[in-house]
Amino acid sequence: MPQLAPILRAGRRDVVAIALGLVLWPALAFGAGRPGASHEERADVRAIGQRLSGCVGREDPACVEALLPEIERMTGAGVTAAYARAHAQLLRGQFDEASKGLLAIAKADAAPPALRQRAGSLAEIAAATAKATAGMERRLLVDGRFEVLWTPGPDEVMIELLEAVLARAEAPLQAVFGPLPPPPIRIHIYPKVETLAAVTGLTEQQIRTSGTIAVCKYNRLMLTSPRDLVLGYPWADTVVHELIHLLVTRRAGDAVPIWLHEAIARGHEGLWRGVGPDTLDSDEIAALQQARRSGRFIPLAKMSPTMAALPSQEAAQLAFAEVHYLLRHLLRGVQRPLGALLDAFAEAPSEEAAIERWAGTPRAQLLAGWMRSLRRGDDLPAAQVQAAAAHTLQFRRAGGGDRKPRGPEAGARFAELGDRLMALQRPAAAIIEYRKASAAGAPDDVWMWTRLARALHQVGDFDQAEQVAASALQRSPWHPPLLLIAGMTALDRKEPKLALERAESAMWVNPFDGELAALAAQASDALGDVTAAARWRHRQQRVATP
Fold it and tell me: What is the pTM of this model?
């Protein structure tokens, strides 16, 4: 499968993610501070507070629930136990119960102010999630190890594809990160970015500005439906990216810094399709080369507490490229498993201590070496220096209208004339105008290459159409319209396997296009796979249904 260019997913600890143990501690200390509490009792409370903080940091509801009897014995059935129980309910997906319990704590005069504030914030999130998931469809996937929730309607066509991705991802992820948490791992598909904002505590402005389309938090994966973006987005890589965040959190707790969390998830999100952490994609290379020429990189400190707070999609994309390059730098220089690094974070008292324990080298020295390598452009292909600018996501407007994909400004007149000629069924004349548009200043515009490849395909020049499409896919391997015409061209050139790969690649970005399913069916027929062809035709009918 051609490599997709993952765009800006956000599985990081979001803007409301304060270290929960710090707000629990005042309540535990409050219980231990009652008259007559002995030194030994206070020490016990500290110990249980640390254990509870670890459970919450790992977002492990079973761990929290196991501590409830001890908390109640030490502090009584008061606000501390009530908070722990409500938080476990939030992690379990029991949103109505969690909302009621948290709201009661937020209004309790006996609760410390920090705990009331935190409970109030989480109560809003729990209530918003209860509202968002009310009436959602549910299905267990991969023998019950995952549970997906989605809004009834078109998003259902994602579910079969989602199960295939998860099934392919399990083994390679477990080889790196260890066993999956107890089932089911919950995945929520929300219809719009407004919903994602309500259930995460992010703002719509942060989501649209940074290109955040998914979050892993509160022991679940939360994705925006590709329907809420004009061209979709690489949702298949995204769900694996978020799953990695969950695995890292469960193994190492909340001690892993955001830059490393994102580096690990970004570097391993392609494992399900055979792409390892050593491979940078074309968008990442383009972003790093541009930053190298300008000398403007994003410091790691600017990435915390969330990349969703970065000022633009381009900035967020550069940040992801930097940390992916950093992960590659670390893995090449340290011959120890990544799991050992996560275990070091779970045990060490600080970020510096954890990294040095794993690498045998001080953190500052490792990062200095990474920055030197980054500024020199080590291992970045020279041929990619003039690659196209980073691609950004196109959200649908809040009012419901689509943003019309923009063509090249410099060649707009020629492109418009070419479009008119295509509408008049004159593809040969359109080819001339599209080439003029490209020569006028848009040599790397993906829409122009897609138009040109389609026109060449229509005149029957399949070899030239393949050359144009293949060249453009090197720069824009995730672009669904380009993948569609590239797949059609491959089929006409008697390359059905390549055609099927391109159709599937496009569906990992936009699963709602009936033309892609039709292409996959034709390619399967050509490969002699009658069963698969029937399945794709059934999918085509479902996608075409309003």
Answer: 0.90
